[in-house]
Design a protein that fits this description.
Blueprint lengths: L3 H4 L9 E2 L3 E4 L6 H8 L2 H5 L12 H18 L3 E6 L4 E9 L8 E7 L8 H16 L4 E6 L4 H9 L3 E7 L6 E8 L5
Parallel strand pairs: 5-6
Antiparallel strand pairs: 1-2, 2-3, 3-4, 4-5, 6-8, 7-8
Helix pairs in contact: 2-4
Amino acid sequence: MHTLSQFDALTLPNNSVETARLLLRLPELADAEALMGILWDPDVVAQKQVTLTEAPGGLDLALKNTNGMLRQWELRGYGQWSVIEKATGRVIGIVGFYNPERSWPGVDLGWVLHRSRWGHGLATEAAAAAVGWIWKYTEIDRVVSLIAPDDLRSIRIATKIGERFERADVDPVHGEPVHVYAVARTRER
């Protein structure tokens, strides 16, 4: 397991994003407890808004997951951000990119916010900012989102940020049905 000191030197240019209401920044180990409550919310888990490789657990697992988020940044130069609400200074979720070493349909954009922030346009704001960042700072040409077929809220977010339904598929981890939404870089970007 990585420790915070191993990531102190992880200084990537332009690794944070600000929007009108949000700050997207590299995750910190101090975020683990807040993220644990967000990612393991029973509705989030039931709606398959997160791909769990282990059952929800305690703080040790949350720290392991936060370290995994940092590892993506270290390996790939992109990853998931902690989403900070500027008005409160609190961690309210995660947004960003996941590209595991196992077979996956592409660079996966995901988002999860605390249920108290659902319905306020914050996930759309965060996801749009993440897509803008990936086009500006990487050579990635296509981004996908794997969404449960009945997750209408996430489907709306995906289409609002320019993703379009590409195909029905299966989650590479659990073999459950998903819809793949995708957006490709255009020449103007």
